[in-house]
Design brief:
Blueprint lengths: L6 H7 L2 H6 L13 E5 L5 H8 L3 E6 L2 H10 L4 E4 L11 E7 L10 H11 E12 L5 H13 L13 H9 L3 E14 L6 H8 L9 H19 E2 L2 E15 L1
Parallel strand pairs: 1-2, 1-4, 2-3, 4-5
Antiparallel strand pairs: 5-8, 6-8, 7-8
Helix pairs in contact: 6-9
C-alpha cells in the first residue's frame, strides 16, 4: 500500500473514515452467521460493527500499527496481518468487506487484488467495498501538484481513483459480477480544529518523503492559503471526496 499509518492520530482525529463506512454495511445481504473478512480493517472499528450485525468476522490489514490498535480495542475479534494483493485464507468466506482501502493499492496491482478476493470467496459469495473514485480530493491534489511544479518538483499521483467502468471491468475479468455500482460526491467535513494541512499530513505523506522540512512547510502553507476560499466554510474544512461503492458476486 502507498501509505504508512499513524494509527493513533488516525483513530483519534479521522474517525469520519469508519463512520462513513457504516453506511456501506447496508449493502451486505448475507444472513447473520455468515463468515465475513474485513479486508484492510484498519483500527477494527468496522470489524466490530460487522460482529454486532451477527456475522462471524475476522479482520486483516497490512499495517502493524493499525492491527495493534484493533487488537487492543477488540480483543475478542481475530485480526491478522496480510497484504490485500497476496493474502490467502484457510477456508473461503461468504463476504469480503472493505472500506477506504483499495485506492491505496497501485493500479497495476488491482487485478491481483480482485483475483485474490475471488479466490477467497465461496461460490456466490459477495464483495462489498467503497473507496476513492475518479477525482477524489482533486482540489487538494491539483493545488499540491501546482505547488510542486512551481518548485521544479514532481508530484506523484499515487492513489488509484477509477471510474465505475474502469473498476467493474477489473472485477468482471477476475470472476466477480457487479450487481451494484455507484460513483458519487461526498464532501467530507474534517474534525473540529483540523485543516487541510492535517488531512495532507495524514493521507498525502509519500510525495513529501525526503523533502526538507522548510520546503514542506512552505508548500503546506501555500496549499492551505489557496484552498481556504474553496474548502473552508466558517472555519470548517470540507474535503471534496468522491467515492465509488460496489457490490459484486463471485461467479
Amino acid at each position: 500500500m502507498n501509505i504508512e499509518w499513524n494509527a493513533t492520530n488516525y483513530t483519534n482525529h479521522f474517525s469520519f473514515v469508519h463512520k462513513y463506512g457504516e453506511d456501506v454495511l447496508k449493502l451486505i445481504d448475507a444472513p447473520a452467521g455468515s463468515r465475513v473478512l474485513d479486508l484492510g480493517c484498519g483500527n477494527g472499528a468496522l470489524t466490530k460493527k460487522l460482529q454486532e450485525l451477527g456475522f462471524q468476522v475476522q479482520g486483516m490489514d497490512a499495517s502493524s500499527e493499525m492491527l495493534h490498535v484493533a487488537r487492543q480495542n477488540y480483543p475478542d475479534i481475530r485480526f491478522e496481518k496480510g497484504d490485500a494483493t497476496q493474502f490467502t485464507l484457510q477456508d473461503p468466506v461468504d463476504v469480503i468487506f472493505s472500506n477506504a482501502v483499495f485506492h491505496w493499492i497501485d493500479a497495476e496491482k488491482q487485478d491481483a487484488l480482485a483475483a485474490h478476493i475471488a479466490s477467497a470467496l465461496k461460490p456466490g459469495g459477495t464483495l462489498v467495498c467503497e473507496f476513492g473514485g475518479k477525482n477524489c480530493a482533486e482540489s487538494v491534489h491539483a493545488v499540491l501538484e501546482q505547488c510542486f511544479t512551481a518548485r521544479g518538483l514532481h508530484y506523484p499521483r499515487i492513489n488509484y481513483f477509477p471510474t465505475i467502468a474502469e473498476y467493474t471491468a477489473i472485477l468482471e475479468r477476475n470472476g466477480l459480477r457487479p450487481d451494484y455500482a455507484v460513483l458519487f460526491d461526498r464532501p467530507t467535513p474534517q474534525s473540529p480544529g483540523k485543516t487541510v494541512v492535517d488531512w495532507i499530513e495524514m493521507f498525502v505523506g509519500e510525495p513529501f518523503r525526503g523533502m526538507e522540512e522548510t520546503q514542506k512547510a512552505e508548500i503546506l502553507q501555500e496549499t492551505e492559503n489557496r484552498l481556504r476560499p474553496k474548502l473552508c466554510n466558517d472555519g470548517k474544512w470540507i474535503i471534496d471526496y468522491v467515492r465509488i461503492r460496489v457490490r459484486a458476486r463471485k461467479i
